[in-house]
Amino acid sequence: MRHETLAGQPRIPTEVSAMTAASLNVKPAYLKIANVWKAFGDFHALKDISLDISEGEFVCFLGPSGCGKTTLLRAIAGLDLQTRGSIQQGGRDVSTLPPSQRDYGIVFQSYALFPNLTIARNIAFGLENTKRPRAEIEARVTELLKLVGLPEQGNKYPAQLSGGQQQRIALARAIAISPGLLLLDEPLSALDAKVRTHLRHEIKELQRKLGVTTIMVTHDQEEALSMADRIVVMNHGVIEQIGTPTEIYRHPATLFVADFIGEANKFEARASNNAVGIGAASFHCEPHDYDDGTPVIAAIRPEDIIPHASGSLANGAAANTIDVTISEMEFLGSFWRTRLHGHALGNETLIADFSINAARRLSLVPGGELTVELPAERLLIYPRGA
Question: Is the confidence at residue 2, as pLDDT, over 80?
């Protein structure tokens, strides 16, 4: 139930948070980021960031360009020290240590492989700096090439490999010295969609197998939702919300999160007792703390809208339903995205996603009539201007 608010924002249900903690088997914090700020002149890229990450967790920093996610990653890596605040890893204060004295491996968007070295030498680079015996280094390189599924590529050069293969080698090099922390800076953004989808599954499986604490920076919502144990949503240098993918998607704490993660219809509305008014219509919603008549924003995701045949609810119509006309239909493979208009909504357009089976069952066509239901538990209410 989203019936309690803090500073006008919906609260994640206590029972959901408790289930999440139990399902993640939460451990003591391995990485502790406390009150971190980063200023570039008068511009603050990070504003009082605090975050605990447990050992073995896979955490995604997610947000639009310029939100501060890469700046935070670079602060953790020691590549760009924070202006103030502290960072602890494994109980050790690393706030001011240079990168060479921190325990992490990093994979960059550009792969950053040495073009003049073979694949085996690229992977061995960090190991050679540790002065390990050559036989031990060769055995470790062989092990890592098998681990990333490229056992026969050791004698090739980076230019002879595909982008996806190069990224696997960059990952193997990063984990070669068995770091306590793995940092991934938009590692998949340079790859085409099909390779990206395949590789994100492989990276997640590899992370689970190794048990290494991992932080990945991404602006791709699908990547974060499919890979992360927890997501840190950032905007303008602050954390908007921290939660599991399910929490972030189903219970967005702010309008920004609701709009940035997935799709959302947004309407200027008026709050009333356990309801919200949109245009000439009134809809039941989850209990809230807004006074009657308070201007709010009502939001609902396109896939949460339920279609019914026009006129099928005439006798004892269900709550939260309105009659609409289909103005446009867009085929997106596994579903139809429709644009709907109804007198009750005034000039507002309602976007709804219907499955292929629903579209076939209801014979949906542009210009057709339809009744749609906006479930009360899926109507999200936020303060106007947030």
Answer: no
- Check if the beta carbon of residue 336 is closer than 8 Å to that of residue 330: yes
Sheet of 43-54, strand order: 43-54, 29-40, 84-89, 92-93
Owner of token pair 């570039």 = 40
CA distance 212 to 58: 8
Q: Across the chain, which distance is largest between two alpha carbons, in Å?
A: 82
Is residue 174 very low, low, confident or very high in pLDDT (cuts 50, 70, 90)?
Answer: very high
CA separation for the pair 280, 203 (Å, rounded): 50
pLDDT at 266: 95
- Residue 259 CB burial class (10 angstroms; 0-12, 13-18, ≥19): middle
Which tokens belong to 303? 């896939």
CATH number of 265-383: 2.40.50.100
Q: Tokens at residue 278, please? A: 């949109």
Q: What's the Cα-to-Cα distance from 154 to each of 102, 125, 140, 283, rounded to whole Å?
A: 28, 13, 12, 63
Whether 292 and 271 have beta carbons less than 8 Å apart is answered as yes
- β-pairing, 295-300 vs 265-272, is antiparallel
Contacts of residue 133, defined as CB under 8 A and 6 or more positions apart, other chains included, come to none
Q: Which H or E element spans position 374?
A: none
- Sorted by where each begins, the domain ranges of the chain are 27-260, 265-383
Q: Which CATH superfamily is domain 27-260 in?
A: P-loop containing nucleotide triphosphate hydrolases (3.40.50.300)
Q: What is the DSSP string of 120-132?
A: HHHHHHHHHTTT-
At 294, list the tokens: 């308070």
Entry pTM: 0.87
Whether pLDDT at 131 is above 90: no
Ranking 22-31, 32-41, 73-82 by mean pLDDT, the lowest is: 22-31
pLDDT tens, 138-149?
999 999 999 999
pLDDT above 60 for 317: no
What pLDDT shows up at residue 19?
A: 45
